[in-house]
Amino acid sequence: MKLQKIVSRFLTLHKKEIDLSLDRINQLCKKLGNPQDKVKAISVVGTNGKNSTIQACFSILKEANIKCNVYTSPHIQKINERFVFNNEQLKDDELADLFEEVEEINNNQPITFFEILTACYFFKAAQYPDNINLLESGLFHRFDATNILKKNLASIVTSISKDHLDWLPKNQQTIDKIIFEKTSALLNSNIIVSNQSSKSTMENIKKTISQNQSNKYFFNEDFTYSMSENDFFYYEDKHGGLKLPKPNVLGQFQLENISTAIATLRNLDLDIKDDHIKNGIQKISNIARLQEINSGKLKKLVKDNLFLISGDHNEDGARVLNEYLKSLDCKKHIIIGMMANKDHEKYISYFKNISSITTVDIPNQPNAISGKKLKEKFKDVPNVRYQESIEQAIKSIPLNNGDLLLITGSLYLCSEVLNLN
Fold first, then answer.
1. For the segment 138-151, what is each residue's pLDDT rounded down to a tens digit?
2. In what order do the strands lie in the sheet with 190-193?
């Protein structure tokens, strides 16, 4: 209860949810003793795959007995997920104490919710100067609250695509502008660029960071992977090749994220051994990113059928998700709920040969599009229906043995699924 009360107060400190500026976070961190200057960080920017890449890095580093702090957003079930120190989430009372201390120092000055959370993270992270910090950049990067570091170990650039366009001026809602916002302010250290959805996107990233003096590593040029038979894949970079077991996460696109994580850690002086990588990629925790639900209240409704949730919510996420679905030889049923500011028609256009699509409302999210309006936007897609709740939607689908049920479209929807389940 104490933690929730402080979080509620944080939400009232600024009239805007997002206000792209570094002034407020810099001012508060100065009062906190500039803790961001005392941490060793790997920064992760991009549109898709950030959390997956971080979780792969985290799992490998843990195998190497390297302590980590991890800062990600948004949280799926509890805000504690954003605050990992010494490889463990902070408990409620620890997080409440941290928030309260920073709240007092902030002294009710205007600051956005994400900014004060970021200040809290850095304040705590400075207590562990030897730990590796894995930092997920938020909306964009150039004016993101995490972008107040003066130095870092590396910057990872995951797949970049169109998303959050409503935060850009109408005449600048382009992939070129997004690439600029995410990569033009990267620090001089090491830059590792993951696979991109198009050659033009990769070339634009290269152009934007061309004057950056970092060591640069690009997917398919400096590191790559290939599929092998018998549940193995092959990773290769300048340090040599690795025959690796398939990871414990679903989807070939995850191999791109994992390869980027491996490339990053192998190019830093962290004494990462081959066995650390082999063992680590089989222990990745990746909540709501093509996650299989194996038990629980909702799983009972799905019975023995494969039940997946995935928070993909933009066109590139839809593209790679559909590539995975195409690899499965079964009937696919999808339940979708989305936020209002997404390109709904573009998102659904990637899904092919789907047996049924059911739109739903996302509870407790005033910025979500209603399931009824979403159904109207999907009017050109066959077999679309609407149900008010997740549970009603599952019950309404005539699942046969061997069918797949996927719930997708929003991390907020996945959060509701996990809470209900």
1. 777 899 999 999 99
2. 88-89, 84-85, 68-71, 132-136, 40-45, 154-157, 190-193, 215-218
